[in-house]
Specification:
- By secondary structure, the chain is an all-alpha fold.
- It has one domain.
- The protein is globular, with a radius of gyration of 21 Å.
Length: about 400
């Protein structure tokens, strides 16, 4: 992997990733109502009109109004009510302008996340190789689908990275508040609270609980208990098939359908929690590694994970690179290559990406064997202790 730290290679790679991302965004900007953006606007329109947010008929009527006529395909709004509320201001704009605003916000969030990963999670100390890893994770081929489909993962990656940075700086409660936001996409973090509790980070979990209570309570107030029940029913009826998902449940569902896929997710989730409990001693004192392992494991084992969700792998790969740069680079290259093969050559499902996620999870697990992790970004307290120790010697 030494060639990935050569300046011409790094510059060419960063330029290529940026061009792919820009191409995806420009294509979607030309046809914004043919992306998932129309589903978000549908939810915002129904909510603004005071209709039944998760009623199929209300959504079809609102979407037909947005499109100007009934359309053969229907893209349902399946997110939490607070997401529909967040999209309401974009209804004041033309679809192209609204999508441009969405792309601009996504770019700002990704840029800020990149700065935090570079400065606070230690990639700056890795030089050009760190820049390569940043490009292969935060601006990866899978991540580009956020801009092509109008998905919000590129926005939610900022609180995920910021939460990890605060966790590394020993600020647990605000870290938890930020880490609660990515739970709007629970497939990216569902193992995180359990993993952090195992390593004694209960203040982080309390922060996550407070954050979830805030946006979950707001959602409940907007639609009531009946609306939440309708949401779950709509997810079951209109949600994508598990077989199309990245991860182990998707691979199993391709053989037996949704039932075995959900069953596999449940069984594998229980097994993952058991394994984390067994290895909690190895994670003691390493909350950032516990977070990284839980995020990667969540993506591997959730029943509904898609390419755009893999932008969340920025945190696990950056954490792995703090001690083991070569495996982190190899994992990032493998994930991008697997996505490329799955997209271009394999029609049955994104199963190579599941294999790549397996490899990265195993790398993170193997790293638990060595408890000695260098302090890439020592805190002020650590520096003052070091100075006093040196002075007293």
């Amino acid at each position: 992997m030494a060639f990935l730290s050569r300046r011409p290679v790094v510059l060419a790679l960063v330029a290529a990733m940026a061009l792919v991302t820009a191409a995806y965004a420009i294509y979607a900007l030309a046809v914004p109502l043919r992306t998932d953006f129309v589903a978000m606007l549908t939810g915002a329109r129904v909510l603004g009109d005071g209709g039944c947010l998760y009623c199929h008929a209300a959504q079809v009527q609102a979407q037909s109004g947005l499109l100007g006529q009934p359309h053969a395909t229907f893209d349902p709004f399946l997110e939490m009510p607070v997401v529909a509320l967040a999209y309401r201001p974009l209804l004041l704009l033309a679809p192209t302008s609204g999508y441009a605003a969405f792309l601009g916000l996504s770019a700002l969030c990704v840029g800020a996340a990149g700065v935090l990963v570079w400065r606070r999670l230690g990639l700056a100390s890795r030089g050009l190789a760190g820049m390569t890893l940043l490009a292969l994770s935060l601006v990866s081929l899978p991540a580009a689908w956020n801009y092509h489909l109008g998905q919000v993962d590129a926005i939610l990656v900022l609180p995920l990275v910021a939460g990890a940075a605060l966790l590394a700086a020993s600020r647990p409660f605000p870290a938890g508040l930020l880490l609660s936001l990515p739970l709007l996409k629970p497939q990216t973090e569902w193992l995180v609270p359990f993993a952090l509790l195992l390593v004694g980070q209960w203040r982080v979990v309390v922060g996550m609980a407070v954050g979830v209570a805030a946006w979950g309570g707001a959602s409940l107030l907007m639609v009531g208990p009946g609306g939440i029940a309708q949401w779950l029913s709509l997810l079951d009826q209109q949600g994508p098939a598990v077989a199309t998902s990245i991860g182990l449940p998707g691979a199993l569902a391709s053989l037996g359908g949704n039932g075995p896929g959900f069953a596999a997710a449940a069984v594998l989730g229980v097994m993952a929690c058991g394994w984390l409990g067994w290895r909690r001693g190895s994670m003691a004192g390493r909350p950032l590694h516990a977070l990284a392992l839980a995020v990667a494991g969540s993506l591997l084992l959730a029943p509904h994970v898609y390419a755009y969700d893999l932008i969340a792998m920025t945190v696990p790969l950056a954490v792995l690179a703090r001690r083991a740069l070569a495996p982190a680079l190899a994992g990032a290259v493998l994930l991008n290559a697997a996505h490329l093969v799955d997209t271009l050559l394999i029609a049955s499902g994104p199963h190579l990406e599941a294999l790549a996620l397996c490899v990265i999870v195993m790398m993170l697990a193997a790293d638990l064997r060595d408890r000695a992790v260098p302090a890439v970004n020592p805190s002020r307290a650590q520096l003052s202790v070091a100075r006093s120790t040196t002075t007293g010697a």
